[in-house]
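Project standup — Tuesday

K.O.: blocked on the structure for the chain from last sprint. Re-posting the sequence here as requested.
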Amino acid sequence: MLLKACLNGSRSPAEHPALPVTPVQLSADTVAAVAAGAQAVHIHPKDATGADTLDAAAVAAALDSVRAAAPGIPIGVTTGAWAVDSQAQRLTAVRDWRVLPDFASVNWHETGAAELAAVLLDRGIGVEAGLWTQRAVASWNSWPRRAGCLRVLLEIVDDLTPAAAVAAAGELLDALAPSPGIPVLLHGEGASAWPILHESVRRRLDVRIGLEDVLLLPNGQLAPNNAALVVAARRIIGDLTVTG
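H.V.: unblocked you, prediction finished:
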């Protein structure tokens, strides 16, 4: 069972004082998260204003810093459409990368997702197919190159009640076509994050946690940092694995 730390997302430091933004902050947070039990990290490189960017120099700076601090830890980045003005710019940006991440997430509901995923695969970058909706699942199910994906990310993005979040996760899992050898990572956001983590562990799926997905610990208190969230997730994994 993989535990991945999602360190910052599209958030800004205004949302949490410990949110890592700069390459140095991302590398320090990676070291702390790995020490707490994370086995991979997902980051959003930022520009000088703190906004998400796919710019080659910014991506390289973030990757180089994290790899120097935590050698051997798999690092993924976003390809979110919000980071550019158009699909053409997004494809150009990814083709311009000279320092490559180990993997990149592709939100399948976004326009041009399959084309972008193909570019990533052709560059030797692992693809995490982010499936948020039934329509996205159906689209990915029919993609001829889906067997080449590194991982499927089933994302429960709404602040649902625990029962509704778990039910929504079950519906996405039921719709997913059998894909032998492709791991599934199930995660939630906001109020859905911890109930979905419990459900993921119960189903023996990969999991992720971090300030991108949730700012609060399971007890409702503000998490001091990403490492604290990873510690809480690792404790849940241990408890449910023993009792389950």
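K.O.: great, moving the ticket to review. The chain has a mean pLDDT of 95. The radius of gyration is 17 Å.
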